[in-house]
Design brief:
Elements (H helix, E strand, L loop, with lengths): L1 E14 L3 E8 L3 E8 L2 H11 L5 E7 L6 E9 L4 H5 L1 H17 L7 H16 L7 H12 L14 E3 L4 E3 L11 H12 L12 H19 L8 H8 L1
Parallel strand pairs: 3-5
Antiparallel strand pairs: 1-2, 1-4, 2-3, 4-5, 6-7
Helix pairs in contact: 3-8, 5-7, 6-7, 7-8
Length: 241
């Protein structure tokens, strides 16, 4: 049986001269592994260019394949994303966000609402014309909320620190607590109060942006129970510092 499904591309690996292994996220399957076979070098190069980080495709899958990797019979791009493909800053953010999801999510189960969140986020990044350097920070916080690890926002004092273990702000963290720095706690409190369309007004220095991304990664790793090593964060550091 042939199944049509939308997929957000997270990671790809060229396999031999005519195949690509793609890892993505779909509404029907959650995290999924796929094999794309294209005849000849020109076919494989064309497929590689379309399957960039965070590209959104509609794929025809051979559902009879019960293995871990499903064969893609054919696919087409659902959205043209020229800014994400061609703008160095946006493509770097897309690389980071796609790798972050790839490292975080391992569940193979339907989650249509999370898929829709990913699609909405990709289109938001594509459409932002300027001041999008904080996009990935907003995404990390929103990802935490959508994954069930949303920070408890009950801030009474701007000097409170965010406690990683309790997932809440505290004026007097207990001894041994793992907390964000004062600056990272302040950024988190600010992002929790802003809607995504207002992210462009945030003014965060490059080094502090990187510190916050690392702090959020540590927070999510603690609550998800596994290490999250996102190597493309180093690329973002070079692009935005």
């Amino acid at each position: 049986m042939i199944l049509k499904t939308g997929i957000v591309v997270l990671h790809k690996t060229k396999y031999g001269d005519s195949s690509i292994i793609v890892h993505g996220y779909s509404a029907e399957s959650g995290r999924c592994g796929l094999v794309v076979r294209k005849g000849g070098r020109s076919g494989i190069h064309s497929a590689l260019s379309q399957l960039h980080p965070l590209s959104i495709i509609e794929a025809e899958l051979n559902d009879r394949n019960k293995g871990e990797l499903k064969n893609i019979k054919d696919f087409r791009t659902l959205y043209n994303l020229p800014a994400i493909r061609e703008n160095l800053s946006k493509s770097s953010i897309a690389m980071y966000v796609s790798e972050f999801i790839y490292r975080c999510i391992h569940e193979i189960e339907p989650n249509p609402s999370f898929y829709e969140f990913l699609v909405k986020s990709v289109l938001l990044l594509e459409e932002m014309e300027s001041d999008f350097a904080n996009f990935h920070l907003w995404f990390l916080v929103e990802f935490a909320k959508r994954s069930g690890y949303g920070p408890d926002f009950d801030l009474h004092d701007k000097d409170q620190l965010f406690d990683i273990v309790s997932a809440s702000f505290s004026a007097s963290p207990q001894i041994g607590s793992k907390c964000f720095s004062q600056a990272d706690s302040s950024i988190l409190a600010t992002i929790l109060q802003y809607r995504e369309e207002s992210m462009h007004v945030l003014k965060i220095p490059g080094r502090q942006r990187n510190s916050f991304a690392s702090a959020m990664t540590e927070y999510l790793a603690y609550h998800m129970g596994h290490q999250i090593n996102v190597r493309s964060l180093d690329i973002l550091r070079e692009v935005f510092e």
